Amino acid sequence: MKNRQRLGIYIHIPFCVKKCAYCDFLSFPATKEVQEKYMSSLESDIKYCVSKYGARFDDYIVDTVFFGGGTPSYVSPQLIAGILKTLKSEFAFDENPEISIECNPGTIDDEKMRVYAESGFNRCSIGLQSVQDDLLKQIGRIHTFKEFEEGFSAARNAGFKNINIDVMSALPGQSVTDYVNGLNKIIEYKPEHISAYSLIVEEGTPVYEHPESFLPLPSEDDEREMYYETDRILKKAGFDRYEISNYSKKGFECRHNVGYWERKDYLGFGLGASSLFENVRMKNISDMNKYIGNAGKSDLYEDIEILTANDCMEEFMFLGLRMMKGVSSRRFLKLFNKNINDVYAEPLEENIKNNLLCKYRDDSGESWYCLTPHGIDISNTVMADFML
Ligand code: SF4
Questions:
Q1: What does the pLDDT average to over 13-37?
Q2: Whether the domain at 5-261 and the domain at 309-384 fall into the same CATH topology
Q3: With 60 as the cut, is the pLDDT of residue 1 above it?
Q4: Class of domain 309-384
Q5: Cα separation of 270 and 285, whole Å?
């Protein structure tokens, strides 16, 4: 049997009940009718892609699928299950795939979680963000903490043994004590995975356009403290930090996201979805009418970038250094037929000297480069040194 390469699949569901005040993702409210049309177009998009490029997927086996958004749990669970069924009939699947769905409290119930579990989903990611109802309201979330509790129980009752909770820090009006208490409360639910991000004020969002309505934002010192507390509290609770913002119990790292950071090939379907396939990055159109009008009839890419060898090496470093284990010299050599030291001698040496990177050997003798704690703090600066 030939050794097939791993392939990830991302499905974008762009619908949300209401736009959150900080959100710059491709997401918006839509009627049931639009949702149904979209889901049907998504199916046509997948089938068209396989009928046109299917021969190129013969060497691949799907080992992760991720339904993200938006709020996938906002649309009918039967339509979601239908798309997963289509994927399973169009692609060869690994016998133990990770199949994730993003869910938001207020849009989850027992019936939905049961349909997901029965159709093959085995991981769910719940967007809680904060345990405080006043803060949730302030940032425009549609749900309360109680609705999160109900959704979490629904997921467990349906049999989900791999649950992520998203949590945000540096929210308007949030104190360090609020955040610490909230994080401790979240741990009590015993999720297998926690993604912890701080609020980023993105241009074009209400938080950016009307800052006066979102005061007071925590000071830089408080923001830093929340960031350090995340690491301290989660490690103490038995979570392993495997990526700058992601913590998991042993064996529960998100395989799909690790695939992004390791630059494994993935196909994205749906509005605005991105793909990386054989060193070509593609992005789908973001216009809903064009998407629905053309799905199943033509390619839907609005952007195609053929990566050069240098682009690939840069991405290998930027993305790989996000993970705590860092980047492997052996893998670099295997992928690029070049020694990492011949390409990056200066930034490696300089960052090691400044205690921002460190070099270590694993049990097999393979050498790796990873960020130090200080390097994590200023990771963007370190990564910029690897531009060629
Ligand atoms: S639920 Fe998520 S995707 Fe939807 S508006 Fe809020 S932050 Fe954006």
A1: 97
A2: no
A3: no
A4: mainly alpha
A5: 9
Angle CA 328–330–335, to nearest 5: 95
| Average confidence (pLDDT) over 257-268 | 98
Pocket test for ligand 1, best of 18, 25, 35 (most atoms within 8 A of CB): 25
**What residue's CA is closest to ligand 1, atom 5?**
19
Pocket of ligand 1 (CB under 6 A): 16, 19-20, 23, 25, 27, 69-71, 104, 127
Instruction: Check if the beta carbon of residue 86 is closer than 8 Å to that of residue 46.
Output: yes
193 in Cβ contact with 163 (< 8 Å): yes
Which atom of ligand 1 is nearest the CA belonging to 27?
3
CATH topology of domain 5-261: TIM Barrel (3.20.20)
CA nearest ligand 1 atom 3, residue: 70
Return the ligand 1 atom nearest residue 24 CA: 8
The string of pLDDT tens digits covering residues 41-84 is 999 999 999 999 988 999 999 999 999 999 999 999 999 999 99
pLDDT of residue 2: 64
Could you tell me the pTM of the whole model? 0.96
